[in-house]
Design a protein that fits this description.
Layout lengths: L2 H13 L3 H30 L2 H9 L2 H33 L9 H4 L6 H12 L4 H8 L19 H25 L3 H8 L4 H29 L3 H6 L7 H10 L6 H35 L2
Helix pairs in contact: 2-13, 3-13, 4-8, 4-10, 6-8, 8-10, 9-10, 10-13, 12-13
């Protein structure tokens, strides 16, 4: 009998507060730590040398451009595959208001750390792994060395496999609520007018998925681009991901390369912050259009 007034009091307590006010303590802590990290980084760069000069020195290194191009390629492929497979899985599992329990298997990889996922990829797809042993036993190959090199390879296939296996469930997690709450009236109208599967997806589903898919894609791109543990375990010695290069600059015995790690890390963060701000502005416009029914 006494729970009603207490609940009503809590509702009144939060009703008069804006979302910004409730998030203000967390925002202050996050902003303070961010500014402190930037200040420390700028101080170190100032002690080591002018940041722009350091960045110019980095740009003169052929190994930097090799690492940058390799990282962009592997990251782009991993992100696009994860988004495509994840959206398709969300459509299959939740597109017809199916139970959320139908996608339980997709949540299992999310409980596995990335470095464990990388070891699983090595265990399955290396030339001494399970897949090579199975194909040899089936008589498809005579020796395990004939099995394609899919891990620690110069093409980054092992890195892509690791991230796709890990990130597809994250894409499902982000897009499944959109399918569960999606208004299917446009899709039904397209079907009535004779539109095929592609037109139904393009006109009836993509407008709702576009904002969250773009946001998820930027999150995945930023995470994969700057990661270290998976490329360090599954990648080749050369070429290497930019995260591995930064780690080697920082932890190597050549102290002249340590400012390179600071400079590349700082400018990478600046670029992704700008991209995130532009994306937030764009996706907000998309959501406003959806709310208005445009």
């Amino acid at each position: 009998m006494q729970s009603g007034p207490k609940t009503g009091g809590k509702m009144k307590l939060f009703k008069g507060k804006s979302m910004i006010a409730m998030l203000l303590p967390a925002l202050l802590v996050t902003a303070g730590l961010s500014f402190y990290a930037v200040a420390v980084l700028w101080t170190r760069l100032g002690a080591e040398g002018n940041p722009l000069v350091v960045l110019n020195d980095v740009a003169s290194l052929p190994s930097f451009w090799e690492s940058l191009s390799f990282s962009l390629g592997v990251t782009a492929v991993s992100t696009v595959l994860s988004l495509g497979i994840g959206v398709a899985a969300s459509k299959l599992l939740f597109g017809k208001k199916r139970s959320a329990g139908a996608g339980a298997l997709f949540w299992i990889p999310m409980a596995v750390p990335h470095f464990v996922g990388a070891y699983l990829v090595i265990w399955f797809f290396s030339q001494s792994g399970w897949a090579a042993s199975l194909t040899q036993q089936l008589g498809w190959i005579d020796n395990r060395t004939e099995f394609p090199i899919l891990t620690n390879d110069t093409s980054g296939i092992g890195i892509v496999l690791s991230y796709v296996w890990k990130e597809v469930p994250f894409v499902v997690l982000m897009t499944a609520p959109v399918y569960l709450e999606m208004n299917n009236s446009v899709k039904h109208a397209v079907a009535t007018l004779g539109g095929g599967s592609f037109r139904k997806f393009k006109d009836g589903e993509w407008p709702y998925l576009k904002a969250v898919t773009l946001e998820t894609g930027v999150i995945l791109f930023a995470f994969v681009f700057g990661a270290f543990e998976v490329p360090g375990l599954v990648g080749a010695t050369r070429p290497e991901m930019i995260g591995v290069t930064i780690f080697e600059w920082y932890s190597g015995g050549n102290w002249e390369e340590r400012p390179y790690a600071y400079a590349v890390s700082a400018w990478t963060g600046v670029v992704f912050i700008i991209l995130s701000a532009l994306l937030m502005w764009y996706t907000r416009r998309l959501r406003i259009r959806i709310w208005r029914g445009e």
